[in-house]
Amino acid sequence: MNVTLPSAVSSGGIGARVRRKEDLRFLAGRGRYTDDLVRPGQLHGWVLRSPHAHASIDAINDAAARAMPGVRAVYTARDIEAAGLGGVPCGWQVTGKGGKVMAEPPHPVLASGKVRHVGDPVAFIVAETRAQARDAAEAVEVSYGVLPALPDIGSAIAPGAVALHDGAPDNLCFDWEIGDQAATDAAFARAHKVVRFETTNNRLVPNAMEPRAAIGEFDPDSGEYTLTTTSQNPHVIRLLMGAFVLKLSEHKLRVVAPDVGGGFGSKIYHYAEEALVTWAAGQLRQPVRWTCERSESFVSDAHGRDHVTTAELALDADGRFLGLRVQTLANMGAYLSTFAPAVPTYLSATLLAGCYTTPAIHGQVKAVFTSTVPVDAYRGAGRPETTYLLERLVDVAAREMGMDRLEIRRRNFIQPSQFPYQTPVALQYDSGDYEATLRQALDAADYAGFEARRAEAKARGMLRGIGVSTYLEACGIAPSKLVGQLGARAGLYEVANIRVHPTGSVSVFTGTHSHGQGHETSFAQLVAEQLGVPIDMVEIVHGDTAKIPFGMGTYGSRSLAVGGAAMVKAMDKIIAKGRKIAAHLMEASVEDIEFADGRFRVAGTDRSKAFAEISMAAYVPHDYPIEELEPGLEETAFYDPKNFTYPGGCHICEVEIDPETGGVEVVKFTACDDVGRVINPMIVEGQIQGGVAQGIGQALIENTVYDSEGQLLSASFNDYAMPRAATVPEFTVLTSTTLCTHNPLGVKGCGEVGAIGSPPAVMNAVVDALRDYGVTHVEMPATPVKIWSIIQQGGAALPQAAE
Amino acid sequence: MYDFAYHKPSSVADAVKLMAADPEARPVSGGMTLLPALKHRLNKPTALIDLSGIAELRGVRREGDAIVIGGMTTHYEVATHPQILAAIPALARMAATIGDTQVRNRGTIGGSLANNDPAADYPAAALALRATILTDRRRIPADEFFLGMFTTALEADELVTGISFPIPEKAGYAKLRNPASRYSMTGVFVAKGPQGVGVGVNGAAPCAFRQNEMEAALSASWSADAVAAIKQPPDDLNSDIHGSAAYRANLVTVMAKRAVADAG
Questions:
Q1: What whole-number distance in Å separates Cα of residue A722 and Cα of residue A717?
Q2: Which parts pass through the membrane (chain A) (predicted)?
Q3: For a designed S-S bond to A266, which of A157, A206, A793, B160 qualifies (C-beta 3.0 to 4.6 A apart)?
């Protein structure tokens, strides 16, 4: 099951810069997004949301709303409970210290008894028009008893803090650990130096371009429900919503995710609105639709990051890392979103070795409920948090050790000869060459010439700094048995069904989902290459549980590493069957049939059959081994990965700071990433550029701010800064490849590396730019006012790295 | 948005008549502030009076030593109009930095002046250039027009019809944008001409204002150095999640220096 690459990149195959097939419809406005779809007789839903961070619901009077024009229903928790619906489920159960499983308080579809964050759904109003539904929502009278807000981790864990959930009296979801505490303590006991570092990974709002939307439909004759939704994983939604909330069997529930305009993780999760439209469509026997307003997205889409971490690094006299201790407080928000418990634990703390040989590591994570929007995976999901921590910590350590920041990294790199490398925090890395990506990035960035550029900038009155991040991440999630042991409530394999049609064209049904990644192109390249058919003869189909056998969807940079591997496995079955058909047609032994470049050949002869001749024979089996072989040419494969994949690389950022305004400009950004085999370099570069843009956004401008009453202050684009074209520089994006050793394509994944590797590179550059001011740390985001304040105070501002 | 009546008068007189008849009606020019407020249901006017059909509100002309710009002139037109580019290029450059392309093609100078958003660009230019705001019934000097946050000297039924900018010898503008909204965090417009030296500040305070100390300093010596040491007191300046009052006070000095440099 290994891919043999042709010596030259064939037209449209693996390695070619094929233009994205899907872009024409997107650019021409012909994408078919959920909100574009119109259903006969459709009704419109509006969600009435809590204006309070934390309050009891003492009474709801919806009589006036029900009587308003066009209103068909006003649903509240009472209706949901009477119908026996379940709550929104969490897909991961973390078991903490002493075998204590996490607190998993109910997450009702509509708030029951209490609201727990601004934006918590309280009522669902369905009317003939959207305006009528919204008018009626304003007429619903809710009597709230305002309770103390818990707008951040600090307030939630403060002694005597009010409990958000009855089932979590101390607002603690779990207290978890990983690694060997005794070995780590021993390493610290013999350390030459201990470097301590505290940081907060700023909370982010994902802000996909397309707001969430959902349409529920019910066919009374078949009893089938259909949910069309903005999802990264329709089968997962069918599982979560069908089995846990609506209690519908799979054969009576179809979930469709058509064109989806960006997700970045925020569209993985099952949201209450999906259940509401689906259930209401059954109640009202008419389609019910809902589309999120942008300002509603800010208070209802799962947020990302929000970790508060203290780390200590023990080093020997030569700067070798001996041990690492990390304590993290992770904000879960008000309820557990689908993957939330996994983010700070198995997607974050397991990365604490980074690309370094730190022999002893102990990580602890306390997950905390707060009266804020639920927090879950956002592009990178736990790995950006750990990467930022490590790569800032390493820079701080270099400074305190008086070492060069490249030298300290090189001295601790895992060497290519050490793979497979078992870390002290569960993961086993299969491949990588961190020196290679570092060297290539240094060359491309002209690192050696930096001091001259700094001097030139200084002459212009600007402070120039350079920052390096050498990162590693784990993606291609994930081996089902392993994640099952770690608390996942689902498998994380992927599925491909490949249907070769009689004329040799191919339909590929994949359980992954493309919402901007360009799968329709890169997957077609992969299939065209393997089967030797022109790329135009390959169609990628995703996003519909009625068409795709099964699938776990797209997140965690898994689509190619896991979904692509499933395609290879299915194609192997196709080719194996084709060889039998070819052997029959050419009166040869199956063992003598070779398949390459789209032809089945009898080895050592000039006899061959084209792929399309074999597919035709399979569907018109007149001359066919019908006794031994079924007609047709269609195969399905499930692929369960053997391990995570481990992309890594080096990001180098140069910034210039205007000392008068504190404004930070990224003037140069160089990335060299090892994402394994590259199918379409153009798409990979685009993925990395997009990820870096988001990383620059996190580092410099994006920030989610709640006030003491739990009101979201950064609740619109007026106050939540998103990266713009002017925020990002020209990128130099390079790849340097070591192959993944355990999947058939040798691919690792590229969707998240940009967002993972870049924030510490930017912040290391910011700190470097301020080196003359004695600055040792700046918290993200490095906004103008923050930088200006630091400069005003001579660098003595904000939390400092201290011994 | 809530339902409202819609009127599209073809003369200023008709528009004013409609406004006088219904205190809850709102005139709309480009709608760049009003329409989002309506969509968010933050505003519930009984009627919108669309000014886009009034020809007399349009156009740019030179009147003696002044440039007169009709109230319905878009930011894009201000940014690209040959007479403005020739007479007050700094004003055109300022207009070119407002919002984005879409906003500049919808938003109008009259709407911006009448709205008097603290972070809008034009009020600083109007103050620095000693402009006169023209209405359906009178001429109001800029110094008497901008009264406070979103507050002007306009009467309830009074309509901005245009603005007259005396042509300066030189003028310049510099601002720092709010990283999120891209409105002015603090901007300073400086001008020197027959009317004297003017320094108008936007974004920093609840209302645009003139920086008198800087005007005196620049009158004595037109140079960036002349304002470099002048500190704006932070009292009464805006403070929010994007910048403290002290930060904005600093920006007043920094942007003043840069505006002088921009003016040349």
A1: 7
A2: none
A3: A206
